[in-house]
Request: fold
Amino acid sequence: MTERQHKQRRGAGVAAGILCVCLTGSGCAQSGIAAEDAREGEAVQTVRNAADALVGARSSKARTSMEMAAGGTRVTIRGEGVYDFGKQLGRLRVLLPHDPAGTPEHRPIVELLAPGALFMKNRGAGVPADKWVRVDTRSLSDGNLVTGGATDPFAAAEVLRGARTAAYVGEDKIAGTPVRHYRGTADLGIAARDASEGNKESLAAAAKGFASDQVPFDVYLDDAGRIRKVRHRFSFVNGQQNNAVAVASTTLLYDFGAPVDVRLPDGDDIYAGKIAEE
Reply:
């Protein structure tokens, strides 16, 4: 072999080695991206399945918190009660914020949650104490994710059916229970499409009524895939004052299997008059 042939063969070998390294590196990169995509896909599916896990759990107790911020003012509304995920019926006692002097301005509102409807007692001035106010949640621009001062626990779970992205954040504990923390964004339009019949129209209304149909969330799931805590961040425009309102709605679920007895009011118990502005 001549010296020239030897140099050509050696050069070809070096080139082949570089090509091999490049291909190997590329293969590793593709494998890493694929693995990352697979992990995200798994997280998205896990989050989307959370509502079904609640139906399997039958019922639970619930605590809610809704923080609203607009124009430098921030208020927090809290609620507590029980919910039947199979029947999609719940009862919450909602506490409105105190006035600036620290004195309660309102009696607690009792809310009964049902598919397509919200019943409220102590809702407004001029409503007799023994009467309920009924609201068709399918007609609300927020689908009752905000209006009632507490997000319906099952509606909160079904928002996650629209998860477009989700990432596993890590392990945590909620009230001593080990949980897995996921963070992502849900699409209300997709959630409405995949929701149960009881929430389909309400979520579709919210998808059109909010400033954005993309809802950032943080959710904490236990070993059975059940929601222990979920936090959504909504944004809408106040029609009366035409200013942006940011809402952070948090729902805590615990004591799964708790007894739930919710009886919806009869027609005679529902107030048909006009509610005074407060």
Residues 3-48 form the longest helix (46 residues). The mean pLDDT is 85. The longest strand covers residues 59-70.
